[in-house]
Amino acid sequence: MTTPSLDLVEFIETQVLPKYADFDRAHNLEHVTRVIRNALELVRTTGADINMVYTIAAYHDLGMSGPRAIHHITGGKILTKDARLKRWFSTEQIKIMSEAVEDHRASASHAPRSLYGKIIAEADRDIDVETVFRRAIEYGLSNYPELDDEGQWQRFRQHMAEKYSADGYIRLWIPGSPNEKRLNELRNIIAQPLLLRQHFDRLYAVARQA
C-alpha cells in the first residue's frame, strides 16, 4: 500500500486534525501536517504499516489539550480510548500506536519502544533551520507574553542550546534520515552566537507582526 486507506484518511481529516486549531502556533495544523508528511516518507525506507504511521502522526500532539509537560502521555491515552480506531486496527496495533505517541517527545529519557515510535519521533524533529527557529520563537511569544524582546531572545537561545546543540538532548533514531545533515547545519549556527542572533532578529520581527 502506497497511501493510507481512504476511509481512514477521511476520518482523520474530519474528526482528528481539526482539533489542532485549538493549539499554539508551534503545534498547530501546519505542524501536524508536516509531521504526517515526514512520517509517510519514512515508511518507504522502513517498511512500516502506512495506516499505523499515518494515524500515529495525526494523534501525536493531541495531548496538547492538557499540560504540555505530559502531552505525550495524554496523547497516548487519547489514542487508546478512541474506540473508533477499532474499525481499522487490532488491539495490539492500537497498543503499539499509543506507545509510539508516548515515546515521540524529544526529551524522553528512553529510546522509543518500537519502530513506529522511532518513525514518529524522527518525523516530529522536522529539523529544518528556518522551521526550528520560527517554531521556537512562536512558542515563546504564545506562552511567555510577559517577556520583552531581550527576554524572548534569552529564552530562545537557552532552548536552542539545551535541545539542539552538540550537547543537547535531541536524538535521532532513523540512521541516514534527512534530519542528520540538517541537524549538523543547525548546530553550526547555534555554535556561532552572532549568527544565531541574526536569524532570531529576522524571524522574530516577522513573528511579532503575524
Q: Could you walk me through the main structural features you see in this protein, from its secondary elements to its overall organization?
A:
It is built from ten helices and no strands. With 210 residues, the chain is an all-alpha fold. Helix 2 (29-46) packs antiparallel against helix 3 (50-59) and helix 4 runs antiparallel to helix 5 (91-102). The radius of gyration is 17 Å and the shape is globular.
Order of helices and strands: HHHHHHHHHH
Unreliable segments of 5+ consecutive residues: none
Task: Let me know the number of strands.
Answer: 0
Helix segment tally: 10
Spatial shape? globular
- Rg computed from alpha carbons, rounded to a whole number of angstroms: 17 Å
**Main pleated sheet:** none
Query: Could you estimate the helical fraction of the residues in percent?
Result: 55-70%
| Terminus-to-terminus distance | 40 Å
- Give the integer mean of the pLDDT values: 92
Strand content: under 5%
Class from secondary-structure proportions: mainly alpha
